[in-house]
């Protein structure tokens, strides 16, 4: 019973995009007609059989023949012969002399009713792998897995939505919108699908269409805080700060425990020239935030507000809190340097700009500000 082990890099084989692969020649070589048991991560706790397959073609080739075959890399999913050779040397470090033999074989997946071993829910197994890849930030591979799962059920709106989410993160907003539209045709009363389409339009730079999709979402559920929050962001992008503030305040009436909403509310209040109120919103966000990265952004936003209010010592203290979390952020370091400049502490300011230039030698703000400081010493 030959077993084919599949890993993250074999997504094309799992999704069905490719049905040809290469392995070192096994002690028992493969033959046409052999049945393959195909597993994901068989050596880990998460091991699961993905599918069974039948071998349809086998070539036994030497390492030298493989790396000099110009047509083989593309068939195996590699960009060129160099990439194929590098991967083989990494995977089989003891089997890459010119005469070492490999088997290049093709297979066809068998329907679950033809399996000899125990059957599994293939769709759910592939979805689980797609979910893991999504959480890892491997959006392209995750999308391929969701596409493979979709082959089992073309009317699964959840999968279409997840494909849209992946494409959004890959910056392919037009394709993401197409998948959200397909999902909405199947599940027209799902407000999250409209909201996700609104987010895709917003990222695409079309806030007007985003607003229309947001309106459709609110028709279904006018008290969904996620949709209300994103509607506030859409109005922010449209520079309608009064309406943005209205929606953030509405969210907080329903649920006042979301630090992101308090943070955005602070940003809007700054835009409206209400800096003192903005500080209170940032303080509330910091009180609720459990995410260090977001915490850093909020400390920096509060510091910028204090800088605008000419409360320089307090601003520096806030910049320091931000830098404890994100110590290589050039914007925060430069702004901290500006605060020192306002206090005529040019030596401390130079220290900030020097740190930026060590990490980012071509940072224009740090270059100019450092020169100004040197002129004032």
Description:
This protein is α+β, with helices and mostly antiparallel strands. Helices cover 61% and strands 10% of the residues. The chain folds into three domains: 3-120, Hypothetical protein (Archaeosine Trna-guanine Transglycosylase, Chain: A, domain 4); 121-217, Serine Threonine Protein Phosphatase 5, Tetratricopeptide repeat; 328-377, no CATH class. It has a five-stranded mixed β-sheet. Strand 3 (35-40) and strand 4 (48-62) form a beta hairpin. The model has no long low-confidence stretch (mean pLDDT 91).
CATH architectural designation of the largest domain: Roll
Q: Per CATH, what is the topology of the largest domain?
A: Archaeosine Trna-guanine Transglycosylase, Chain: A, domain 4
Structural class: alpha+beta
Gross morphology: flat
Question: How many strands?
Answer: 5
- Which radius of gyration do the C-alpha atoms yield? 28 Å
Q: Helices and strands, in N-to-C order?
A: EHEEEHHHEHHHHHHHHHHHHHHH
Number of domains: 3
Low-confidence stretches: none
Q: Tell me what portion of residues adopts beta-strand conformation.
A: 5-15%
What do the pLDDT scores average to? 91
State the share of residues found in helices, binned by percent.
55-70%
For the largest beta-sheet, the strand count, sense and barrel status come to: 5 strands, mixed
Strand order of the largest sheet: 1-3-4-5-2
- Output the CATH class name of the largest domain: Mainly Beta
The number of distinct helices, counting runs of at least 4 residues, comes to 19
CATH superfamily of the largest domain: Hypothetical protein
């Amino acid at each position: 019973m030959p077993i084919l082990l599949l890993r993250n890099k074999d997504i094309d084989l799992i999704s069905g995009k490719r049905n040809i692969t290469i392995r070192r020649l096994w002690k028992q070589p493969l033959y046409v007609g052999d049945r393959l048991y195909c597993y994901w991560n068989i050596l880990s706790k998460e091991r699961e059989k993905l599918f069974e397959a039948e071998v349809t073609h086998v070539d036994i080739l030497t390492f030298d023949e493989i790396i000099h075959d110009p047509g083989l890399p593309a068939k195996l999913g590699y960009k060129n012969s160099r990439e194929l050779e590098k991967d083989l040397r990494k995977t089989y470090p003891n089997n890459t002399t010119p005469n070492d033999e490999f088997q290049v074989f093709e297979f066809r997946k068998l329907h679950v009713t033809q399996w000899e071993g125990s059957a599994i829910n293939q769709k759910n197994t592939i979805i689980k792998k797609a979910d893991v890849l999504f959480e890892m930030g491997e959006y392209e591979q995750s999308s391929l897995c969701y596409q493979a799962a979709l082959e089992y059920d073309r009317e699964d709106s959840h999968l279409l939505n997840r494909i849209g989410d992946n494409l959004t993160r890959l910056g392919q907003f037009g394709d993401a919108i197409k998948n959200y539209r397909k999902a909405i045709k199947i599940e027209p009363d799902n407000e999250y699908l409209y909201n996700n389409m609104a987010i895709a339009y917003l990222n695409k730079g079309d806030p007007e269409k985003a607003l229309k999709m947001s309106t459709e979402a609110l028709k279904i559920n006018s008290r969904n805080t996620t949709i209300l929050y994103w509607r506030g962001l859409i109005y922010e992008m449209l520079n309608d700060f009064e309406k943005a503030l209205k929606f953030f305040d509405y969210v907080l009436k329903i649920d006042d425990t979301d630090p992101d909403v308090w943070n955005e509310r602070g940003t809007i209040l700054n835009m409206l020239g209400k800096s003192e109120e903005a500080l209170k919103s940032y303080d509330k966000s910091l009180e609720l935030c459990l995410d260090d990265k977001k915490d850093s952004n909020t400390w920096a936003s509060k510091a910028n507000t204090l800088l605008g209010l000419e409360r320089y010592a307090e601003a520096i203290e806030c910049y320091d809190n931000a830098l404890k979390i994100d110590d290589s952020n050039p914007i925060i370091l430069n702004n901290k340097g500006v605060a020192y400049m306002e206090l005529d502490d040019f030596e401390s300011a130079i220290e900030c700009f020097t740190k930026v230039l060590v990490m980012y030698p071509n940072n224009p703000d740090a270059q100019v500000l450092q020169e100004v400081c040197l002129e004032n010493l």
